[in-house]
Amino acid sequence: MSFPTDEMDDIINDFIAESAESLETLDQKFVELEKKPGDLPLLNDIFRSIHTIKGAAGFLGFDQMVEVTHVTEDVLNKLRKSEMSVTPAVMDAILRAVDMIRVILANIREKNGRKEDTSGVLALLGGILDGKGAEKDEAAPPLPEKPAADEEQKQQRADEAQGAAASAKDHAIRVDIDRLDTVLNLAGELVLSRNRLMRLGTRLSESSVDGELQSQVSEAIAQLDLVTSDLQLGVMKIRMQPIAKVFNKFPRMVRDLARQTGKQMELVLSGEETEMDKTVIEEIGDPLVHLIRNAVDHGMEFPEERAAKGKPQCGTIALSAYQEGRNIIVSVSDDGKGIDPEAVKRSAVEKGIISADEAERLTERDALGLIFLPGFSTAKEVSSISGRGVGMDVVKTNISRINGTISIDSEIGKGTRIVFRLPLKLAIIQALTVEAGGEVYAIPLSNVIENIRVTGDEIKTIEGREAINIRDRVVPVVRLGALVSGKDSPGKSEWKYIVVIGIGEKSFGVLVDRLHGQEEIVMKSMSEYLKGTEGVAGACITGDGNVILILDMAGLLTSAKGAYVH
Prior knowledge:
Strand order of the largest sheet: 10-14-15-13-12-11
CATH topology of the largest domain: Heat Shock Protein 90
Number of domains: 4
Mean pLDDT: 80
Number of helices: 18
CATH architecture of the largest domain: 2-Layer Sandwich
Strand content: 15-25%
């Protein structure tokens, strides 16, 4: 039986997508199986996933995939029949086979025709099947005997499960992400038109136009506003994905790192069902990998060290996510040795990042924030696990690129917690438009804590830096005009406005000439000419048709000389 080329391409693409989804969840299932070797339903679930991949690969003629999955299936089948026990050695062999399956799948996706050397993996699995490699590590308890069941009932349950799966597939389709991006862009343009019409409607209501016409126009604009908001929400929901897509790869990674370092630890996941925009999910993967590797390599002590400190020999790394208002909070925490603020200060001074006097004035929390500066590291030696030339400054840059913030909290001997505060959605955001130095800018509302009207006399100078007292709390002040253009134009009014900004655990005031108001804006990416400019997150078109810059306050402050807020 042969298929037209286009139809065959669709079949292969479906195979790639479905196999990739199965492989994403397999690592977590394997780690769970290692903890619960007697969990027969879990083992059956794993066996079915490998069996499904093998069957589809055989139909499509992907012989290398069939070869590896077939032997892997044989090992899993022996485990299911209690002819073999789940040991670390057996698990290592199966995980190596799964890694090879991933490589072969990548070759299929890229259509590169490459053939992998599978002999090592096949020999390892063959040794396990022959009983030559399974006993190298301590054996786990054998699987319980498979309970007897009536064959007719089993077949009926299988048919019901298959019918349910088929029904679920009828309610879902695969859509190319480029098509979704096109719809999102069109929704964004509609938002711009809606904002423009709402501005014109306001002007119309202030004119001498016939009252009946005004009423009809206002009603039409209100209906357009409602439909646009619903469409925008619908498109955003289509792009949302559970963060489990990222989280699922970490149990395997922590398990492998523990075996590699000789440390004992477990990864605890929570909030995997939390949904985020696809772009945000893609951006946080690498930062989380770096943080977890750091937690294993630098944060977690060896079992004997932990025992000497009265801690459990097995350490814990916790990865969690939850929604808080318009933001998603993602945190990585460990119960390791913690970070010494004094060691951080010394390292920063030695590297010339800050002066000894500046280090002396830093609080413990501000000292911890130094680890996010370029060129900083307290590691005494570079290892294969972390410290491969990727610093925490890169983590911060990646998070800032999606309008997120990062903060750190640590206690010596108790552990460390690093928190990302990320936007729920990216393309269409709420922003505060302000004026400074004769120009209008947009500040993402997720960074804004409050707005305050002040006079010039209320702004004081402390140690050469401006600050203001807000409810018995001293808040540093920076002038937006000076930050953006290097000069601060005096306003005609004696009144000024301070926008209090929150970045991580820090807060500071931004002095502006005027507040224009809150507006829903569509963020547009910058042209190649301005791409990567520090302090600029993007651009947008306001309701009155003007193009303005959207500010990245964290990047703007860091890049401005002398404006770094401690």
